[in-house]
Design the sequence.
């Protein structure tokens, strides 16, 4: 398909694969460390057995993505608690929530198979173990566990495959994994990336599955060569995967800066633009793609991300919890003060364009109905269908718009952004939520509906840096030229390059295009 | 010497063994006989505390067995049961050497002992020591079972219908082989069976049990000549009755 995309995918592989294997391996080992003793205890006690299996089954019914997401608020709460009580907190994002969720996910098969395996041991054999003078522990170690080993191993194998697959969902909680290919690819419609991520995660799961199957066989046949081969195979996979992590960690890790982004085209392009500038200034850079709004903000505050582009209205409503609307300039000023005082976050300035929430509909239809503004829309809304992205309908902006203009639609549906545009041009929905910097608004002949009562807050793109980097003058100097440098037309054009169906560019190419334009 | 005094074992309201007292002299071959549910296996299992009695005393050579460590107690007694229970993931040699291993013997001493025991139970050490336990016939398995029980040179052997699951030829072979071993090593054996022929052939003394109670104890001759009641008479006459039935069947054939 696209040679650049393939080359880029390969270049990310060492990091993504390494992180994926490190995460999966840790989760499986921790899962075994918890499940095995629990299963042994449960096989001896009916009272423990029911609740243990019930809990593990319940965890299994929670969708993987939801389970991972659930750990963020839980850890955030715990961290605030330990901070208050013991004076230290921990990170609620990234490795820890992913590890805990995957550990829980790995428990059921290990638990179930260990209990089944231990119960499958012939009672006569257990009687003999007591008869020859074994203690309960010796009977377990010398007789019951060895005899149950093939069944237990089958459970571990199932757990490993589940964990490796589910680990791809840890990208949105800020943990790098092979899922980065899939999430980034889906957002930018880079199908090479999506396919690459699927093949890599699937291939890894398949290889580990075969090696663990060999180990399972070695227990069943009591074959030492098979056992040695499987152990060497697994160690080889782990070694090869983790090697790049240690290499990159050992050579000047302190100079590696992390650029975050929120997982849509404009954000990829801008983060690449920032990374490019920082590389030119001699920094080693790393991108953390596709983070959620709240995730990326906390990551910046805690220093896990060094810089990213946010929007003034988002910080205003989501982080500052403000509902009043003092005007564009006042929002920026108050926001900058709040960021510095509350989190020590450095505010570098506005980039030059606004990416506001807007409601758009096909120009032809809007003109036919004489709809220019949200106020005009109110009368027609009960007969119209609205589509939105994953966030809009649960955001305060939507509540403000509904309240201000008294909007009530015939139906509302959520879409992945790219599909949302297809839905509105195809007539599946009549109105969609959009972002003003989106190049597709002009491309698809959509009309932005006015907001005469000022219900929607301003959304200036602003460059934020972590508390630590706010003191790094060289770092700030590398990014400062971007302030006030990109106008709305430029950003719309860059976004369109990445979004459009034909002659599609990667965010890296769009960033290079902006860079070239700035140089003129 | 094994002394059981007033042993009682109940499950819920049911006493499976009730106020049982019994003495087994050193080097004696005691057979406990009775029907299913008579409490004979429970009695045997209480001697090495695989089952704990509700009340009563157990003394081994004058020492209170109930006050001793149960695991240590089991290591100084051999235990053989009908299901054999060889460890299928271990070789014949590993099975036989398990108790010595638990007792911390060194490897060379265990290996020598294993070969000695295989010879004693009439299995060729070279051919059998490396075989997996699961790959043996029933008779071979129980020979290994006997060897395993003898491994740590116990003075006392507890046997629960050890030959019950074997075919008749193998059973008789193994039974006479075991009686020889018992005499040769000067063992004290308590054997549970429901087969009166086996009891009469093997035992020095026989204890008859019924519904958890010991009905009579004596030498085979005493039981044959002076049965305590009709139940005991019926039981000890079983072999003769079967011989008569056999003779009649042969005559009419």
Sequence:
């Amino acid at each position: 398909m696209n040679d650049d995309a393939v080359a880029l995918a390969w270049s990310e592989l060492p990091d993504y694969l390494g992180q994926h294997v490190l995460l999966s391996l840790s989760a499986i080992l921790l899962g075994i460390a918890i499940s095995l003793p629990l299963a042994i205890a449960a096989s001896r006690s009916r009272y423990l057995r029911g609740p243990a299996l019930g809990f593990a089954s319940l965890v299994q019914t929670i969708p993987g993505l939801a389970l991972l997401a659930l750990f963020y608020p839980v850890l955030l709460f715990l961290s605030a608690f330990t901070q208050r009580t013991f004076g230290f907190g921990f990170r609620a994002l990234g490795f820890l929530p992913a590890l805990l969720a995957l550990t829980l996910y790995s428990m059921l098969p290990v638990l179930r198979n260990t209990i089944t395996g231990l119960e499958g041991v012939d009672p006569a054999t257990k009687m003999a173990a007591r008869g020859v003078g074994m203690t309960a522990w010796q009977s377990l170690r010398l007789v019951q566990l060895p005899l149950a080993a093939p069944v237990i191993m089958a459970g571990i194998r199932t757990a490993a495959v589940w964990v490796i697959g589910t680990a791809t969902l840890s990208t949105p909680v800020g943990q790098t994994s092979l899922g980065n290919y899939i999430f980034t690819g889906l957002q930018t419609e880079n199908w090479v990336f999506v396919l690459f991520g699927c093949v890599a995660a699937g291939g890894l799961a398949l290889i580990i599955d075969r090696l663990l199957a060999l180990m399972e066989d070695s227990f069943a046949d009591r074959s030492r060569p098979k056992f040695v081969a499987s152990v060497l195979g697994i160690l080889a996979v782990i070694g090869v995967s983790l090697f790049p992590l240690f290499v990159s960690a050992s050579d000047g890790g302190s100079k590696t800066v992390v650029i975050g982004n929120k997982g849509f085209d404009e954000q990829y392009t801008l983060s690449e633009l920032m990374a490019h500038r920082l590389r030119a200034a001699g920094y080693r850079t790393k991108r953390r793609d596709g983070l959620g709004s709240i995730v990326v903000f906390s990551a910046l505050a805690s220093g896990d991300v060094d810089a990213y582009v946010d929007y003034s209205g988002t910080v205003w409503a989501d982080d500052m919890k403000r509902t009043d609307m003092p005007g564009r300039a006042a929002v920026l000023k108050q926001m900058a003060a709040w960021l510095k005082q509350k989190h020590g976050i450095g505010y570098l300035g506005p980039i030059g364009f606004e990416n506001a929430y807007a409601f758009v509909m096909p120009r032809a239809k809007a003109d036919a109905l004489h709809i220019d503004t949200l106020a005009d829309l109110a009368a027609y809304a009960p007969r119209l269908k609205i589509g939105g992205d994953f966030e809009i309908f649960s955001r305060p902006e939507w509540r403000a718009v509904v309240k201000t203009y008294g909007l009530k639609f015939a139906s509302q549906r959520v879409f992945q952004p790219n599909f949302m545009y297809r839905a509105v041009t195809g007539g599946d929905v009549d109105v969609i939520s959009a972002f003003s910097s989106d190049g597709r608004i002009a491309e698809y002949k959509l009309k932005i509906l006015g907001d005469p009562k000022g219900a929607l807050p301003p959304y200036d793109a602003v460059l934020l840096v972590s508390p630590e980097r706010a003191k790094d003058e060289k770092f700030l100097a590398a990014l400062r030229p971007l302030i006030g440098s990109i106008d709305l037309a430029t950003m719309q054009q860059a976004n369109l390059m990445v979004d459009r169906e034909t002659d599609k560019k990667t965010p890296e190419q769009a960033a290079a295009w902006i860079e070239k334009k700035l140089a003129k | 010497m094994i002394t059981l005094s007033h042993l009682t074992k109940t499950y819920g309201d049911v006493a499976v063994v009730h106020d049982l007292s019994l003495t087994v002299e050193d080097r004696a071959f005691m057979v406990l006989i009775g029907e299913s549910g008579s409490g004979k296996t429970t009695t045997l299992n209480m001697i090495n505390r695989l089952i704990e009695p509700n009340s009563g005393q157990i003394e081994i050579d004058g020492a209170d067995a109930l006050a001793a460590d149960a695991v240590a107690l089991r290591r100084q007694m051999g235990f053989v049961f009908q299901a054999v229970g060889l460890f299928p993931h271990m070789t014949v040699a590993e099975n036989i050497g398990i108790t010595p291993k638990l007792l911390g013997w060194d490897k060379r001493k265990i290996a020598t002992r294993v070969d000695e025991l295989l010879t004693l139970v009439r299995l060729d050490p070279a051919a059998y020591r490396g075989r997996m336990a699961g790959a043996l016939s029933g008779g071979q398995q129980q020979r290994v079972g006997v060897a395993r029980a003898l491994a740590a040179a116990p003075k006392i052997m507890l046997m629960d219908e050890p030959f019950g699951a074997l075919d008749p030829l193998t059973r008789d072979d193994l039974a006479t082989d075991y009686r020889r071993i018992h005499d040769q090593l000067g063992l004290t054996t308590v054997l549970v069976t429901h087969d009166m022929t086996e009891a009469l052939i093997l035992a020095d003394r026989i204890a008859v049990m019924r519904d958890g109670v010991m009905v009579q104890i004596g030498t085979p001759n005493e039981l044959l000549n002076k049965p305590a009641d009709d139940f005991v008479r019926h039981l000890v006459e079983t072999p003769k009755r079967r011989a008569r039935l056999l003779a009649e069947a042969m005559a009419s054939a």
In short: The mean pLDDT of chain B is 93. The longest strand of chain B covers residues 14-24.
